[in-house]
Specification:
About 55% of the residues lie in helices and about 15% in strands. With about 300 residues, the chain is an alpha/beta fold.
């Protein structure tokens, strides 16, 4: 089967860029209504068709891409009253670009395979900027022939695609990647706060860190907050970071592997969300550190 009609559930910050690039490469695109109409209307203006339920999307599509918040939303899209599982047909492929729990991914794949459909994990890295530019990074996992069928669609919006193994492996890899990046952000936020309290020049901190072994992409993004009050370099909500860290610590517990740092970072983000920072972008962890240290009201 050649993929011609692509369904997209989750037209948000990342999904808009994914959909735009799929349309630009000549595929038909079916999208589902979203609480934020702007990205949906934008894709419709470019030629996408709108449907009301996951079941309708599945019926109209050769493959469906999920780009939702996490496992509860993925499971609702699959198993809900008007979910994809109610409208399956042989050969339908669902590619999950969300950050989700690997155990759930494996279960969904088994359930859908029993009904003749395929569920593969294709989580993303990078930001909405790269999504719009068609330069996301993807980790993919699942049967080789299924991944080969959807590769032309994935190539529309990604310039890096890493094959991770069997179903569930890409979501494991994604959680490891996010543990590293979110932890780097937490460490950078603490270091920047300490530097501010000590009176260290932020330009000097930036220059020395970015020139040596302490350099990280997250530090480069977070240092823009004290220098220019700019948190737009990492448009990823603190509440989503908290969620991803919970998925990571769930995974380590299930293995089981002791995860001292993971638990600490997770609790830091729980605290930040409880303090009212959940909807703020991750660079605002600096504000969290400043507040708990009495440097900011």
């Amino acid at each position: 089967m050649t993929i011609k009609n692509v369904g997209l559930i989750g037209v948000g910050l990342m999904g808009h860029g994914i959909g735009k690039n799929i349309l630009a490469k000549g595929f038909a695109l079916n999208v589902m209504a979203h609480k934020n109409r702007a990205p949906v209307d934008s894709l419709i203006s470019l030629g996408a068709k709108e449907y009301g339920t996951p079941a309708e999307i599945a019926k109209a599509s050769d493959m469906v891409i999920l780009c939702v918040t996490g496992t509860p939303q993925v499971e609702e899209a699959i198993y809900g009253v008007k979910g994809i599982a109610t409208s399956l047909r042989d050969g339908l492929i669902i590619a999950d670009c969300s950050t989700a729990e690997p155990a759930s991914t494996i279960k969904i794949a088994a359930d859908l395979k029993a009904k003749g459909a395929y569920f593969v994990d294709t989580p993303m890295t990078r930001t909405p900027k790269e999504a719009e530019a068609g330069k996301l990074g993807l980790m993919v996992a699942g049967p080789a022939d299924v991944l080969a069928k959807i590769r032309p669609v994935l190539d529309c919006f990604a310039d890096t695609i890493v094959n991770s193994g069997d179903v569930g492996a890409a979501h494991q890899l994604k959680l490891l990647n996010n543990f590293l990046s979110i932890s780097h952000a937490a460490i950078a936020a603490e270091a920047i706060t300490v530097a501010g309290k000590a009176g260290v020049k932020m330009e000097a901190l930036r220059d020395i860190v970015l020139s040596g072994g302490a350099m990280s992409i997250m530090f480069e993004r977070l240092i823009k907050v004290p220098l220019a009050d700019d948190d737009s370099a990492a448009k990823f909500a603190i509440k989503n970071a908290r969620k991803d860290m919970r998925y990571y610590t769930n995974m380590t517990e299930q293995l089981p592997v002791a995860s001292f740092l993971g638990e600490n970072v997770h609790q830091l983000f729980v605290m930040a969300e409880n303090m009212g920072f959940g909807d703020r972008f991750i660079p605002r962890m600096i504000d969290v550190f400043q507040k708990i240290n009495g440097l900011k009201k």
